[in-house]
């Protein structure tokens, strides 16, 4: 059972890393304000949809990572 938890933990952590790296960064400062205004003017609806999907996937992988880490700690403590 501990082996399965280890494998799922590795899969969740790699998935979390990939999803976080695929997300677009939030711009700050004056350049972000200008770029954000231009982006809003051009209307990039597809980019917002992809960002929303990546945000949801981030939550799913993060929750999975936490659950599998807790399960792995439990299995290693009990010796199962």
Automatic annotation (TrEMBL):
GO biological process, one term: protein secretion
Pfam family of the protein (one): SecG
Family designation: Belongs to the SecG family.
Name of this chain's protein: Protein-export membrane protein SecG
Alphabetized UniProt keyword annotations: Cell membrane, Membrane, Protein transport, Translocation, Transmembrane, Transmembrane helix, Transport
A GO CC term attached to the entry: plasma membrane
Membrane-spanning segments: 53-76
Organism domain of life: Bacteria
PANTHER family found in the cross-reference section: PROTEIN-EXPORT MEMBRANE PROTEIN SECG
Major place of residence: membrane
Membrane topology: Multi-pass membrane protein
Subcellular location: Cell membrane
MF term (GO), any: protein-transporting ATPase activity
Purpose of the protein: Involved in protein export. Participates in an early event of protein translocation.
NCBIfam families listed in its UniProt record: secG
């Amino acid at each position: 059972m501990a082996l399965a938890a280890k494998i799922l933990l590795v899969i969740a952590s790699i998935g979390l890393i990939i999803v976080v790296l695929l997300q677009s960064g939030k711009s700050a400062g004056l350049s972000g304000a200008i770029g954000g205004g231009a982006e809003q003017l051009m209307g990039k609806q597809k980019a917002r949809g992809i960002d929303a999907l990546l945000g949801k996937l981030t939550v799913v992988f993060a929750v999975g990572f936490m659950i599998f880490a807790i399960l792995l700690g439990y299995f290693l403590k009990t010796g199962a």
